[in-house]
Specification:
One of its GO terms (molecular function) is unfolded protein binding. InterPro entries: UreE (IPR012406), UreE_C_dom (IPR007864), UreE_N (IPR004029), UreE_N_sf (IPR036118). It comes from Telmatospirillum siberiense. This is Urease accessory protein UreE. The chain has 151 residues and is mainly β. It has two domains: 71 residues, Sandwich (HSP40/DNAj peptide-binding domain); 60 residues, UreE, C-terminal domain (Alpha-Beta Plaits). Helix content is 15%, strand content 42%. The protein has two helices and ten strands; from the N terminus they run E-E-E-E-E-E-E-H-E-E-H-E. The strands form two sheets. The chain has a six-stranded mixed sheet, with no helix packed on it. The C terminus is likely disordered.
């Protein structure tokens, strides 16, 4: 079986040489060792030295020298906006207090995975929501050294 032995961040690998891609939802993109199937049905073993975030645009280097591009799958998300920064900060605090992953959007909004309990809370706090399908790229957190990425 083919083995993916190293992960390379966007811009640190020859993306034009990718022979395959793998499209994963947020919950499936933090891995170390797992049998996986690329988007064209090819099987490989993810065999990294440590658990890593497989972020959009990363490349997996296979033992045979081939590359697999990592893609973020569209999933059910909720974009959050507020009329003022204070309200948005309050909502961000409440989301963080529940240890829910959150993505900070360019332009000042937030994105969370679609969860009816969190959405209800956000609406009660005055947030305006838009439900749709998009890639989710949560913040890595204070202790996720080197794993701060944005789309």
């Amino acid at each position: 079986m083919r083995r993916a032995l190293s992960l390379h961040r966007p811009g640190d690998w020859p993306a034009d040489r990718a022979r395959a891609s793998i499209t994963l939802a947020w919950a499936d993109r933090h891995r170390r060792r797992l049998a996986m199937t690329d988007d064209s049905g090819g099987e490989f073993l993810l065999d990294l030295p440590e658990a890593s975030l497989l972020a959009e645009g990363c490349g997996l280097r296979l033992s045979d020298g081939e590359w697999i591009a990592v893609r973020a799958a569209p999933e059910a998300v909720v974009d959050i906006a507020c009329h003022d920064a204070e309200s948005l900060i309050r909502i961000a605090w409440h989301i963080g207090n529940r240890h829910a992953p959150v993505q900070i959007l360019e332009g000042g909004g937030l994105r969370i995975q679609d969860d009816h309990v969190l959405v209800g809370m956000v609406e009660q706090l005055g947030g305006h929501i838009v439900r749709h399908r998009a890639a989710f790229h949560a913040e890595g957190g204070a202790y996720a050294a080197g794993e701060h990425h944005h789309a």
